[in-house]
Specification:
- One of its GO terms (molecular function) is isomerase activity.
- One of its GO terms (biological process) is carbohydrate metabolic process.
- This is Galactose mutarotase.
- It comes from Cyanobium usitatum str. Tous.
- InterPro entries: Aldose_1/G6P_1-epimerase (IPR008183), Gal_mutarotase_sf_dom (IPR011013), GH-type_carb-bd (IPR014718).
- By secondary structure, the protein is mainly beta.
- The chain has a single domain, classed as Distorted Sandwich (Beta-galactosidase, Chain A, domain 5), CATH 2.70.98.
- The chain is 6% helix and 44% strand.
- The protein has four helices and 25 strands.
- Strands 9-10-11-12-25-21-20-16 form an eight-stranded antiparallel sheet, with no helix packed on it. The protein has a six-stranded antiparallel sheet with strand order 15-23-22-19-17-18.
Amino acid sequence: MALVHRDTPYRHWEFASDSGDLLRVVPERGGLVTGWRCNGKELIYLDLERFLDPAQSVRGGIPILFPICGGLPDNTLPLPQGNFPLGQHGFARQLPWQLSALEDGQGIALELKESETTLTSYPFSFLLRLELRLVPGALEIDTSVHNRSKEPMPFSFGLHPYFNLSNLKSPRFEGLPERCLNHLSMADADTAEQMARLDDGIDLLVRPSGDVRLLDPEAGLALDLQLSAPFNLVVLWTEPPRAMVCLEPWTGPRQALISGDGKLEIGPTETCRLQTRYAVSAC
């Protein structure tokens, strides 16, 4: 299927599969996927009013986190080359990306490479490529990070998808470990106690041993986040009263490039490949 440009309800590109599943993407707004319809249901939450106001940060879609996840002390990235200003979640979600259709006809590709803007925050030449494929009942996301520099390149990568919920009371989660890191207090916490507070607002990181499942009985929907190392940490976040949850795969926790916990580093001319998959079924 071909990419089609649409002007309503906002300017975007649309890719539809033969089954009727589709993706909506706005490449100039951080390569943001703003919609994913699967099996006739719109899964992605998007605050359209906020999205249409460029003065406000986006609430919705699938923001891309690179070259860090989370924030840094004083918004500063310390490297052997010096200290560099780098804001929350990095710069990828704020820059224009290049969009194309995949040659196999199953989805789209998004690409971002270094520029004068990125080099002031992150002194590396790179090519970041995401391939998003619509397969029956699922969205597959294959990411490649290519180091085009002459020095080793450290990074973290994450996705920040917002998913629609019927409400913040009835959803359940499976596959979560007993303990988590509560980002609100930066302390170890009981996962079940935190998840019981969805409608109060949560922000936590878990290290699951397998896939994580979201069950929304009122919507009759199950969503499986299928993980693959090293892209296998998960952040869960809600922002009441919005009827949504962020179910986010990360490669490393906050400040991984400083602590070394989950830090990824690739040598000159090397490529790191990361895979994740969201599968939809009835419940």
